[in-house]
Design brief:
Blueprint lengths: L1 H8 L2 H14 L2 H12 L15 H26 L2 E8 L6 E10 L7 E7 L4 E2 L6 E13 L5 E12 L51 H4 L4 H6 L8 H19 L20 E2 L3 H10 L2 E7 L4 H28 L18 H4 L8 E7 L4 H6 L4 E2 L1 E6 L18 E5 L5 H15 L6 H5 L36 E5 L3 E10 L3 E7 L7 E2 L8 E8 L6 H10 L4 H7 L6 E3 L7 E14 L6 E14 L17 E18 L3 H35 L4
Parallel strand pairs: 7-9, 8-9, 19-21
Antiparallel strand pairs: 1-21, 2-14, 2-17, 3-4, 3-15, 5-6, 5-14, 8-11, 10-16, 11-12, 12-13, 15-21, 17-18, 19-20
Helix pairs in contact: 4-16, 7-9, 9-12
Length: 687
């Protein structure tokens, strides 16, 4: 009490105290500045002796501290992690090209006629795109074929995709289905007479008057005979046989046979010389019997078949009749041959098996209107279709070449369809069977026992040390025939088009213009294994990234928006076409640590199917009569940009202060509220 009074009264000791404090605090100006700084203090201190803790305040402090820690940890994690932001802009891409990638498997269409066309709205049409496109034939087999075409083992069934290669399978073995009993017994009139053999060559004086002026009478065939020079060292007998048989064929074409019942007529009212096939089993038996079986599948309503029929029958006459008839002339077993004889009857059911010509080649035909089952089994969808059945081991133990199964594989003739072109192909085919024989034409028309067929048993004068057929592209049958399977075709690759809406269309097409297709036989069942746009395909991890961060929920987006379309579609009725409507949008992804921008195209696909397909797009249009599969795509005018970004340090510090200050302030307010309520309760003023 005394000290207080003394201070209030200003005892001398007080002045000394002030003087002492002034000396410690420094000059008066500095002391004034400190007093001013203290006056703006937001955080004035209350002596600890004047404060006390409470249970509620301690609990709130613990809770607030925990909340602060959780929020701070979450903010730190958010600061360390990358975030994605999705923006939508107008598409400003300046690339004028669009790459369309596809991989589609057609279950019921072979690779022979399957094509892909690209049409855009500008009017640019690319028909039968072949650049950067592969056709892969599907082959499933459980057999392993040896070097010489013999089956050496069986194992588990395996599937291969073959790029126009040589296929292998099992030979057809099924029951007779059209009343054909098989068991061919080949015969020709006078087969008991002697035949040409290797040491009997005609001299020039022995030539028939029938062929002396051959080149003069037929100048249009001079070039063809010059083309036969690819057969090196061919014996004179065989050279004259080739020429004279052609002359006989042309004479047969001009002859009238109205009064001769031996000359049969085709459904097109022309002379017929080809063999009439009436069952699939018959084709199998003939293919096993002859080295080369050439079959024309045709339909009487087909305009191309009507036009092609006379040429086909001349080819049939040349190999089925003329070659054998001229051989009879050369061996002196005939009479007057100034008139071409009627074609051998290979049409009458009771006679055709007995009249089967000897030799290695048979030319036949199938009427697909009359024998629809055969053509369906062989998947004939266009007419005329020429199939080649080769069997190097005819009349021996092996079956069709490399054990071909005629209901899963076939060889299509793709060469020219003139008489001379097809005759050249067949002669070349036989020459490949007997590569070192100078008399392979005589072998072509001989029975197995008539003359030596092996090089070891033949006379040295007709055996060459090198192949008789010259090694030139024109002398190869591979240039005029292609092997296909009937297990479908997989077409894969890409096509570049203008970056505008357009259509990609898959259908059957005849690039040569000599085939008429039957729409009811074209089944466009297909499996879209991949369809996407752009030069680069998304890696799986990128696709997941896109699925996760793009707009919309992942489940909803995965059903509607894809970067690679995959779907199977099965045609349930004839003449069914498909149109896949594709809406596509460019999506770009930008990584924070990488300056490169990766762009892809996302799309939504809706599919319609109908029996007839009208013109697609503007400008040139596709034909509407054949079933097809089309992808009609449209480009969105906007672009989606998905970019990565990381929170800045400044924003991180601001958020951190907001968390600490906010939690502290809210906790203080809550503590003050609880303290006020508790005080009023103690003094009885709560009500």
């Amino acid at each position: 009490g005394i000290s207080i009074i003394a201070m209030e009264r200003g005892f001398p000791g007080d002045a000394a105290g002030r003087q002492s404090r002034s000396a410690r605090g420094g000059p008066p100006a500095m002391a004034k500045g400190r007093r001013t700084l203290r006056s703006v203090d937001y955080f004035r201190k209350v002596p600890r002796d004047l404060t006390e803790g409470s249970l509620s305040g301690g609990g709130i402090s613990i809770i607030a501290t925990g909340i602060m820690l959780l929020l701070v940890i979450g903010e730190v994690r958010g600061y360390l992690e990358k975030k994605t932001v999705t923006d939508v802009f107008a598409d400003t891409s300046n690339d004028g090209q669009l790459r369309i990638n596809f991989d589609v498997y057609f279950n019921e269409v072979s690779c022979e006629h399957l094509t892909v066309d690209v049409l855009d709205v500008i009017g640019n049409l690319k028909s039968n795109v072949t650049a950067n496109v592969k056709k892969l034939a599907k082959k499933t087999t459980n057999e392993r074929v040896g070097r010489y075409g013999d089956m050496v083992a069986k194992g588990e069934a395996r599937t291969s995709w073959l790029n126009m290669g040589i296929f292998s399978g099992s030979s057809l073995d099924q029951e007779n289905d059209d009343g054909y009993d098989g068991g061919h017994q080949r015969a020709l009139q006078g087969t008991d007479a002697p035949h040409y053999h290797s040491d009997h060559l005609l001299s020039k004086g022995e030539e028939s008057d029938f062929v002396k002026d051959w080149e003069t009478a037929h100048p249009d065939l001079v070039e063809w005979t010059k083309g036969l020079s690819v057969f090196k060292e061919l014996v004179d007998h065989d050279k004259q046989l080739i020429k004279s048989a052609m002359d006989l064929t042309l004479s047969w074409e001009q002859e009238k046979y109205e009064d001769d019942p031996a000359q049969k007529m085709t459904v097109y009212k022309g002379k017929q010389a080809s063999y009439d096939v009436t069952s699939s089993q018959e084709i199998k038996d003939l293919a096993d019997e002859y080295n080369i079986l050439l079959v024309d599948f045709h339909a009487p309503w087909c305009s191309h078949c009507i036009k092609f029929s006379p040429t086909w029958e001349k080819l049939a006459y040349y190999f089925n009749t003329a070659l054998h008839a001229m051989e009879e002339v050369y061996t002196g077993r005939t009479g007057d041959w100034t008139k071409a004889p009627p074609a051998i009857d290979l049409q009458t059911p009771q006679k055709k098996k007995e009249n089967l010509p000897k030799g290695k080649i048979l030319v036949a035909n199938v009427n697909c209107v009359k024998y629809q089952k055969i053509c369906k089994e062989h998947q004939i969808m266009g007419y005329p279709a020429i199939r080649v059945y080769k069997n190097r081991g005819a009349a021996h133990t092996s079956t069709h070449e490399t054990h071909i199964d005629m209901l899963t594989e076939y060889t299509a003739y793709t060469g020219g369809r003139s008489l001379t072109q097809m005759a050249h192909f067949l002669l070349t085919s036989i020459s490949e069977v007997y590569p070192k024989r100078k008399d392979f034409v005589s072998l072509l028309i001989s029975e197995e026992g008539d003359m030596p067929h092996s090089d070891e048993e033949a006379h040295p004068s007709v055996v060459s040390d090198t192949p008789v057929l010259q090694a030139t592209p024109e002398a190869s049958t591979a240039m005029n025939s292609q092997r296909h399977t009937m297990e479908g075709c997989r077409i894969t690759g890409f096509a570049d088009s203008s970056r505008v809406p357009g259509t990609v269309r898959f259908t059957v097409t005849d690039s040569r213009g000599d085939t008429t297709f039957d729409p009811t036989m074209v089944n466009m069942t297909h499996e879209v294994r991949s369809f996407w746009f752009g030069p680069h395909k998304l890696e799986p991890y990128m696709a997941e990234y896109l699925l996760k961060y793009n707009q919309g929920s992942p489940y909803e987006r995965s059903l509607k928006l894809v970067d690679d379309y995959k779907q199977a579609h099965r045609a349930t009725r004839a003449r069914l076409s498909y149109v896949h409507y594709v809406k596509t949008v460019m999506t770009s992804m930008m990584w924070q640590d990488n300056t490169n921008v990766f762009s892809t195209y996302e799309m939504s696909v809706n599919t319609n199917q109908f029996a007839e397909l009208g013109p697609l797009g503007g400008g040139p249009s596709f034909p509407a009569e054949l079933p097809s599969v089309a992808f009609k795509y449209d480009l969105s005018p906007v672009q989606i940009v998905i970019r990565e970004e990381r929170e800045t340090l400044f924003r991180f510090l601001v958020n951190l202060c907001a968390i600490l200050g906010g939690v502290y302030t809210v906790a203080s307010m809550l503590d003050g509220l609880i303290s006020t309520v508790a005080f009023k309760a103690r003094v009885g003023k709560l009500g």
